[in-house]
Design goal:
- Helix content is 75%, strand content 0%.
- Helix 1 runs antiparallel to helix 2 and helix 2 runs antiparallel to helix 3.
C-alpha cells in the first residue's frame, strides 16, 4: 500500500471503474421507457461505488474510510440485483448477466480485502 498516492491507485477503485464503464455501455441498449427506472438506478449505483471509495480515501481516519467502502459494497449488491432484474426483463442475455455478476462479485471480494485492511490498520 506504500505506493498508493491517490484513490486512482487503489485496485478496488480501478475494478469498480471497469464495472461502471461496462454498465454505462450496457444501459444505453435498454428500452427508452426504462430511462427513469432501471437505467437510472444502475447508473447511480455503479457511480456510487467509485464515488464512495474516492470519498472514503479522502477522509482522515481509517474507520471513516472503511465506512464509505461499506456503502460502496452495498451499492455493489444493489448492482447484482439490478443485473438479475435486467436479465429477468430480457434486456440482457444470460452470458451478459454471468459476465456482469462475475465482475461485480470480483469487486466485492477486492473491496472486502481493502475494508479488512482499513479495519486492521492501527
Amino acid at each position: 500500500m506504500s505506493n498508493i498516492r491517490s484513490f486512482e491507485d487503489l485496485e478496488c477503485w480501478k475494478k469498480a471503474r471497469d464495472l461502471r464503464v461496462e454498465i454505462s455501455k450496457l444501459i444505453k441498449t435498454f428500452p427508452s421507457f426504462e430511462k427513469f427506472e432501471l437505467v437510472s438506478q444502475m447508473r447511480r449505483a455503479s457511480r456510487s461505488v467509485t464515488h464512495n471509495i474516492s470519498e472514503g480515501y479522502g477522509r482522515f481516519h481509517f474507520k471513516e474510510n472503511a465506512q464509505f467502502c461499506r456503502i460502496s459494497r452495498g451499492s455493489l449488491y444493489e448492482i447484482l440485483d439490478q443485473i438479475i432484474t435486467a436479465h429477468d426483463e430480457d434486456y440482457i442475455t444470460l452470458e451478459q448477466c454471468s459476465k456482469l455478476k462475475s465482475m461485480t462479485n470480483e469487486n466485492i471480494k477486492i473491496l472486502n480485502g481493502y475494508i479488512n485492511y482499513l479495519i486492521n490498520k492501527k
